[in-house]
Amino acid sequence: MKHLKIALLGGVAVAALASTAYADGHACSVTSGSVRVLGNEFPAIQTIAAKAQECVSGDATFSSNLTKDHRDIQVAALTPNPAEYTSAIVANGSIVPLMNDGLIRPLDDLIAKHGADIPKGQLITINGQVMAVAFMANAQHLFYREDILAEAGVDAPTSYEGVLEAAKAIKDKGLMEYPLSGTYKAGWNLGEEFVNMYMGTGAPMFAEGSAEAAINNENGIAALNMMKALSEYMNPDFLTYDSNAAAAEWEAGNVAIMNMWGSRAGPITDNEGSTPEIVAATKFAAAPTLGEGDELATTLWWDGFTISTNISDEDAEATFIAMINGINDETANANADQAVWLSPGYEPSPAAVGVFASANAAPYPMVPYGGLLHTALGAELTDFMQGNESAEQALADVEAAYTAAAKEAGFLQ
Amino acid sequence: MSDALATRRSAPVRIVLLGFLALWLIAAAFPFVWTLWGSFKVQSDFFSIQDWTNAIWGVRTEIETGSTFTDDGYRGAWVEEKFGLAVFNTLIVTLCVTAISLTFGTLGGYALSRSSYNYTFWILMTALIFRAMPHITLVSGYLLPFFELNIWGYLSTSIVVLVAINQPFTIWMLRSFFMNIPKDLDESAMVDGCTRFQAFRYVIIPVMWPGVITTGLFSFLLAYNDFAVTTMLLSKENQTMVPKIASFLGSTQQEGNVMFAVAAVVSATAPLFVLVLFFQRQIVSGLTAGAVKG
Amino acid sequence: MKHKTFLWFMLPSALAMLLFIALPIGSVFVQSLHIENEKVLIEVENCVPLGGCTKETVVDIEASARLKAERPLGVYNGFGTYTNRNHLATTEIAQFWRNSDSLGAFAKQVYGLPFYKALSFTLAYTFIVTPLVIILGFCIAVCVNALPRIFKGLAIFFSLLPMMVTPLIGSLILFWMIDSRGVLGKSLQVLMENPDLSLKASPALTWVMLMVYGVWHSAPFAFVVFYAGLQTVPEDTLESAIIDGASRWQRVRYVVIPYLMPLVTFIALIQLMDNFRVFEPVVGFSAEASATSLSWIIYNDLKGEFQLFGSAAATSMLTILGVAILLAPVLIRTWRDFKGAKT
Prior knowledge:
The structure holds three protein chains of three kinds.
Chain A: H1 3-17, E1 34-39, H2 43-55, E2 61-66, H3 70-78, E3 87-91, H4 95-100, H5 108-114, E4 123-126, E5 129-145, H6 146-152, H7 160-172, E6 180-182, H8 188-199, H9 218-231, H10 243-251, E7 257-261, H11 265-268, H12 276-281, E8 282-285, E9 299-305, H13 313-326, H14 329-334, E10 340-341, H15 353-357, E11 362-363, H16 370-380, H17 382-385, H18 391-408
Parallel strand pairs in A: 1-2, 1-3, 6-7, 9-11
Antiparallel strand pairs in A: 3-9, 4-5, 5-7, 5-8, 5-9, 5-10
Helix pairs in contact in A: 2-13, 8-9, 8-16, 16-18
Chain B: H1 2-7, H2 11-38, H3 43-46, H4 54-57, H5 59-65, H6 72-80, H7 83-114, H8 118-132, H9 135-148, H10 155-180, H11 183-191, H12 196-207, H13 209-225, H14 228-233, H15 241-247, H16 258-289
Chain C: H1 3-32, E1 34-35, E2 41-48, E3 52-59, H2 61-70, E4 75-76, H3 80-83, H4 90-99, H5 103-111, H6 114-145, H7 149-164, H8 167-177, H9 183-192, H10 203-231, H11 235-243, H12 248-276, H13 280-284, H14 294-302, H15 309-342
Antiparallel strand pairs in C: 1-4, 2-3
């Protein structure tokens, strides 16, 4: 799973050369078969679907269902034969249930035929087979206010210990009451924050080769204690803060440092919702490390397309050709601010620097049972964050909740 | 009796009652009035972290759009996001659900009110237990069969599901209304040679409207406000208003257009206002008949 | 009514319920007795240019598919899912009981289990919100009824508003208004003379906030039903009460309220059931940290990357059981009424 960072790092290198040769001259044409796409609804994916549709002509048909709830229906939608959709657009997390049930097909032969020039870094390869083609990346990384940090006399932190020091300095100088923020909302967000922090320890989350969780140890405690220490400098409502709330705090100028999704960098620095001073002072950097280690305490996310198993080969081929056209350099550069694109000729927008700087981070674990641990974390860590129980007890609770769920799902016996 | 109660109250009691009512009406209407006003502001005013009075004066709205009122939210929802289509879908869904629910419900409710066998009681109890099932579990269970039968995503599927989910409440409520209609009415018609159905058709239907209208109001609201069924069972192009509004809110990684949602909510409530004012007399007279027997 | 006629009248409604509710409930029950087949895990090596090789665990699709073909429902587990740690947690509770020295410590440990945490809030919510809804709805109905005719329509419309605005957005806007910097939150701070007051940060205040919302949201339902009932209070009974010299309060207490009692049963029935399934406010108010409900647990199992149908099925069956227990008194009463009406 190191290929993604290669795609990101490679993207920077190629972008410096500003090469767009690969995209040009690719005439795509799908005249038979059916292309049916299921995906999330954000602008980048809307753009891709529109571009993919451009290829479809003649007897071929195109339809798309781009919705926020795509994850809830994807397994049921791809199970029947023929499947409702020929392609599901997925991310690290949501590809797993599709793979567990064998609902998406290996793409190697299609790539050999139609996508020989797709860079290796974009190919999500599992067990030697390409299962998805990634087109964009995302990661939580550091947002900081240059002006406030300067006033407090601290440099932009590179570790969470540095973040704490900076927060203390800002608070002591009376510049801000709650200088930190983050997406600590109970549930998925809180689970994600723990996973990010745990990545900073460099330790694996599961025992090797089995589904047993391996977070109930000193690494887990270190991660939890850091989260708790950070929360002391956050607004007391922090357990209700999702990205929307945290971004609003930032735009209002109440926060000086936060670890936030790269995809929010653009909207936060646009001319809506904030003052020009705040926007001008908002800077992005790599996610901090935990302690002295050099593992970044964040996870890399990608979005990519897959092709269903339960469809005819003709439809699969049609879909592949259309989707490849949807994610080329031309799409990326014409919509540079919609996402951090992975295509080789993409020239990053200024808002993308944080994700690129975090390209060395570990990808979000794509293990079959990862989602179960994530859910358990999101639900069981709240008591600890509210100060009602010890870190040890919280981790024991997480482990117990996860084990019960993993047994139900057949991963543990 | 209403006027009898109303006119014979002394001044202090009236003041207490009116004061209480005024308090309640403020509590009930204030969030909506606030939303109505705020829907003409930009997001950073309506959800202003600096100072909540910004939502009243529109400070940021003036900076960002040049005027203290803006129709950006409405324009975004209706023009950019084609909210009109969702309104049209909602219209179809709510009208069909209300009509079908009431048709099925009146037949079933009438039968339940006129039969005295033990199974009537057990049907009523089973219906209650059916109603206890959390909708989200039901809906997740539908997904796979619906995809396999290729009926997922269509308005008609959602209509049928909403009607079914709504049935327990509908038959319970209508049964209580029918209990209030004297049995002699239809039984004497049957003595005169009508079949059971004819008695229902010519004797019961003309007098049942008050109960049907009240039950219809609840069926309508259920279909109108449903979230669980419509989000999971409708494809994007067939979405009704509520899931459409939810989709304006954005997700973890993507910023939404919250003001589109706010404008859409105001737009979604406006037809209800007209509806209530228009049907006011029918609703009040419908209520007059009362669902008195539990 | 004859059996056959009854059947024909009942058929459409019964068919709809059988197909879309009874059948799913049956399959959900069966599902809750099974856990999924063992997933055969294999370790594979992924090598990429420059990146080196990493080991990853994946599901062996073919081996797992074979198991699934043998046992399409999964492994029979009896009530194992019901009693495991994420549901009734019988083993854990027995252990807590043995190991804790005081009742308080025991209660605290039990409250740490997800099911009991959710159950506590669900029960508290149900038993506090239901009576308040009935009382508030009754008071509003009496007041609206006392209004001059021309204001009634408007008053009815405004009273219905809390029920009509989509809960999804209604709670979003209210959630903002009660923020410590929103209009209601700020007013509360001034009122309580406590500038640090935040409804969202404290579990106790979050509970109060959810319950206030619940009462606000459901009062219109009780109001509508009571208002309907008030229209039918027989005039002559009231008149004779006045002639007998009954005071205003006595008239309400001894004439109106007894007359409306069946309605109270009806509202209580519906409200107990709906409040026991409280869900939307928990999500709308982002209250998951301090207050979870049984329906929220189901939602948490079904949403997201990995869906635990068996677990959600077990919680759903427990919810139905809970509703049945809650409603038992009402049901027994209805049975007696039914028997009484028959003879």
